Amino acid sequence: MKEVYVSQHLNAGVAALQSGKTREAATELERVLEVEPDHLEARELLLTTLLQNKQYDEVIQVLGKRPPADRTVQDLFLLADASDKAGRVNDAETFYREAVERAKGTPQYPVALNNFGYMLANHGRNLPESLRLLTEADRLMPNQGTIVDSLSWVYYRLGDHQRALTEIDRACRLAPTNGDLHYHRGMILLGLGKEADAATAFRLATVLDPHNKEAATQLQRRGGTARRPASVAGGPKKPWEKAAQTLKDLVERARRELF
Q1: E-assigned strands of the chain?
Q2: C-alpha dihedral over 196, 160, 211, 92, to 10 degrees?
Q3: Are 114 and 134 in contact (CB under 8 A)?
Q4: For residues 62 and 82, is the Cβ–Cβ distance under 8 A?
Q5: Residues whose CB falls within 8 Å of the CB of residue 94, separated by 6 or more in sequence, listed in order
């Protein structure tokens, strides 16, 4: 009988997710976990749903039910990220520190260093430690655009805008279609007093990621609006035109505009 109950509500949760009914999905998945707390699939689906709904306190509550000794590094990443987004920065720092310690000697170690270092830089906390963490992450996992981006951001927070620009340019060459990187590049260029170049970076960020509100806000302050690439202006009308809108188009556009 228990198996039938679990299967019924798990299937209902999955169906709700597929229909975009995330709150209904959360309710169904919570019912599964009430009778089977260790149901891995229901737990992971519930966490994904709560994160989509920005229910960060609920994410912390779900993860907090697992005994600390049983938490994985990924659990700690989620706890730290949810705590940060919920405004509990001290808790986030505690979880990230534990994640860094637990991840030592594993492939997750550079990721833990990057995540913690970026969080510190983003909040302007303990910037020398942030620089140390991110420099080590870059050494252990070189040529990763997101790590180099984090490194550029701590230099920006330290006020070394020229070094920040050197690093963000390296990051953009490694990951030219990541809108967040171009937003950071725009902020760094502002720090150097290069308003026109910054506006170009913000515009590109909004093209690559139309949901990047920070880049859109910065662009609007400078009297600009997002432009779509010529290859996608007006939207594709036929299947083969849609197929032509490839990642390569955006990569090449990013390189032309920036470098």
Answers
A1: none
A2: -170
A3: yes
A4: no
A5: none
Pull the structure tokens for residue 143. 């040529």
Give the Cα separation of 20 and 38 in Å (integer): 25
* Angle in degrees, 0-180, between the axes of helices 73-85 and 40-52, rounded to the nearest 10: 20
Q: Which two tokens stand for residue 68?
A: 């600390």
- Helices 40-52 and 56-64 meet at what angle, rounded to 10? 160
What does the buried/exposed string (b/e) look like for 226-259 if buried means 16 or more CB atoms within 10 Å of the residue's CB? beebeebeeeeeeeeeeeeeeeeebeebbeeebe
**What is residue 226's predicted lDDT score, i.e. its pLDDT?**
54
The vertex-54 CA angle with 42 and 35, nearest 5°, equals 25
User: Which pLDDT band, with edges at 50, 70 and 90, does 229 fall under?
Assistant: very low
Per the CB < 8 A criterion, the answer to whether 176 and 255 are in contact is yes
Q: Which class for 67: exposed (0-12), middle (13-18), buried (19 or more C-beta within 10 A)?
A: exposed
Rounded to the nearest 10°, the torsion over CA 118, 122, 126, 129 is 20
Task: Answer with the residue of higher pLDDT: 250 or 128.
Answer: 128
Sequence-distant (6+) residues with CB within 8 A of 187 are: 156, 198, 218
Q: pLDDT at residue 234 above 50?
A: no
pLDDT bin (cut points 50, 70, 90) of residue 224 is low
First CA to last CA distance, the chain: 64
From the number of C-beta atoms within 10 Å of its C-beta (0-12, 13-18, 19+), residue 1 rates as exposed
* 111, amino acid identity: V
